[in-house]
């Protein structure tokens, strides 16, 4: 119940905050234009992490430089971790599957390197806040998770065929996923969208 209330509050704040910035039509167009589907993956000697995300974003150009802009996103994530039984994050002697569902809110600053009608390229960086909403170990509820995660992203966004975008980024979370501080994550992220 607590997680559902937090989700509703985050979505309301996100919607209310950006709705007053520009006209409603612009807001809706940007949310549609920035719909994206993403995939993150990382494999180490200790674990394998894969994450599927679905989200959108809203942003504006900075007045001082039309090539520079900011963007705030809202993504829903489904993560799967295979914790190897002989790795540093093992919870038992055998491999175990740990899953989470979360909301991420990335706030990025972007800079446009080039732009034409059919293509364009931006670089971006910024902090990411992640709220873990649910967690399970081998399909059973697992409470030993640090719900508030903070990370950083650095990447590039390429536009092609005038309407499609692809993002390639590196994400790093210095805070441990588990309550005891273990499992600092990093991953290469790939996403596509409008």
Could you give a quick summary of the protein structure above?
With 194 residues, the chain is mainly beta.
- Characterize the main sheet: 8 strands, antiparallel, barrel
**What's the number of helices?**
2
Instruction: Indicate the low-confidence ranges by residue numbers.
Output: 18-22
* Strand line-up across the major sheet: 1-2-3-4-5-7-8-9
Give the end-to-end Cα distance, rounded to a whole number of Å.
34 Å
The helix content, as a percent range, equals 10-25%
Task: State the main characteristics.
9 strands, Porin, mainly beta
Describe the structure.
By secondary structure, this protein is mainly beta. The protein has a single domain, classed as Porin. Helices cover 14% and strands 59% of the residues. It has helices at 2-19, 24-33; strands at residues 36-43, 47-62, 65-83, 96-115, 120-137, 140-141, 148-160, 164-173, 185-193. The protein has an eight-stranded antiparallel barrel. A hairpin with a 2-residue loop joins strand 2 (47-62) and strand 3. The longest helix is centred in the N-terminal third of the chain and has 18 residues, at 2-19. It starts with a helix and ends with a strand. The model is unreliable at 18-22 (pLDDT under 50).
């Amino acid at each position: 119940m607590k997680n559902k209330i937090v989700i509703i509050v985050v979505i309301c704040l996100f919607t209310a905050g950006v709705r007053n910035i520009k006209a409603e039509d612009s807001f809706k167009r940007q949310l549609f234009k920035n719909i994206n589907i993403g995939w993150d993956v990382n494999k180490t000697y200790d674990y394998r992490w894969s994450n599927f995300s679905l989200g959108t974003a809203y942003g504006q150009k900075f007045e001082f430089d039309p090539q520079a802009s900011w963007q705030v996103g809202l993504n829903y994530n489904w993560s799967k971790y295979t914790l190897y039984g002989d790795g540093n994050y093992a919870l038992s002697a055998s491999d175990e599957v740990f899953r989470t569902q979360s909301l991420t809110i990335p706030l990025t600053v972007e800079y446009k390197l080039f732009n034409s009608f059919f293509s364009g390229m931006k670089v971006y960086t910024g902090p990411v806040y992640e709220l873990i909403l649910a967690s399970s170990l081998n399909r059973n509820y697992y409470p030993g998770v640090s719900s508030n995660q903070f990370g950083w992203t650095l990447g590039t966004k390429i536009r092609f065929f005038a309407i499609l975008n692809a993002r390639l980024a590196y994400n790093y979370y210095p805070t441990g996923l588990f309550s005891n501080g273990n499992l600092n994550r990093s991953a290469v992220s790939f996403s596509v969208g409008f």
